[in-house]
Amino acid sequence: MLALQGITVRYGPLVAVSGVDLSVGDGEVVALLGPSGCGKSTLLRTVAGLVPASSGGVTWDGADLAGVPVHRRGFGLVFQDGQLFPHRDVAGNVAFGLRMQRVDREARRKRVDELLELVGLAGYQRRRVTELSGGEQQRVALARALAPRPRLVLLDEPLSALDRALREQLAVDLARLLREAGATALVVTHDHDEAFTLADRVAVMRAGRIVQVGPPAEVWRSPADVETARFLGCGKVLAAERAARLVGVASRVGLRASALRVDPGGALAGDVLERVHRRDHVRLLVSVDGDEFEAVAPVAAAPEVGERVRLAVDPDGIAVIG
Ligand code: ADP
């Protein structure tokens, strides 16, 4: 088990990470989620041993890692851009850590085959990595990291260099691969969909601190504070009294775009101010009760600007804050 206690990291006068406590249990996948610049990568690099902590400690199964260099921690690293060795073929890349461990040739070959099978690249052994697609390169990077059976895998924005459609598919694949490998992992991402797809628990970071830790469903349903709710897609925040009147929840809530749906039987009424066609729905801006709200409508039955509509509340679009 990985445990971080009171980790603070300074770059000169800048405090990049501040008093972070966190644990990652055996076989658990934890995501560090937060906006760019909040200190996620710095924290990951401190765990890896690449950046020293100014104070606090990193332990594995209770043993302090302070004096242990990067290559002796038994951790596997995967970065955003893969960082493969361009002059080695796929097998040569995947076998790298095994060669460092002086694993013999036959065992190496077997393990490389196993890993390529796992990441869906069986038969790619002799391919040049420079001729692979971005998604394939990241699979090779993951296979390389997993090959020496690391006790912890550290992934820093492993999918963010890929285009969106591929990223969504690969996030699902990566979640499955980590489970199949039984990996213990800490993954950095700024994308909440990715964090929720990958992780057993999500640690939300802001300005160097962890502000909330919990399973995806819990963080999604009840963000710790208003800023977290906004980061998780709640464009609008209602005070308790107003929330009770409009959406029937007697506490402060955040509303996502999907919280209000056009529905002839809905309890709210409003006037459509704007409409924008999205992938599989129409997004509206509706004036309700003297205030503006986002709402969604099916493409086939979307109202026009200026129309009076009725809106129903979808509980999945509502986050109870605090
Ligand atoms: P994130 O991964 O959440 O985007 P980082 O950990 O990369 O955040 O950065 C946290 C803060 O530390 C930022 O303000 C960033 O500019 C700063 N920072 C990161 N790396 C260095 C460095 N090597 N030297 C000085 N400042 C750094």
UniProtKB/TrEMBL annotation:
Q: Where is the ABC transporter domain?
A: 2-232
The protein's matches in Gene3D superfamilies, at most eight in alphabetical order, are given as: P-loop containing nucleotide triphosphate hydrolases
Q: PROSITE patterns annotated for this entry?
A: ABC_TRANSPORTER_1, ABC_TRANSPORTER_2
> What GO terms are given for molecular function?
ATP binding
Q: Which keywords annotate this record?
A: ATP-binding, Cell membrane, Ion transport, Iron, Iron transport, Membrane, Nucleotide-binding, Transport
Q: Which InterPro entries match?
A: AAA+_ATPase, ABC_SmlMolc_Importer, ABC_transporter-like_ATP-bd, ABC_transporter-like_CS, ABC_transpr_FbpC, Mo/tungstate-bd_C_term_dom, P-loop_NTPase, Transp-assoc_OB_typ2
Pfam families per UniProt: ABC_tran, TOBE_2
Q: Which PANTHER family match?
A: SPERMIDINE/PUTRESCINE IMPORT ATP-BINDING PROTEIN POTA, SPERMIDINE_PUTRESCINE IMPORT ATP-BINDING PROTEIN POTA
Name recorded for this polypeptide: ABC transporter ATP-binding protein
Organism listed in the record? Saccharothrix mutabilis subsp. mutabilis
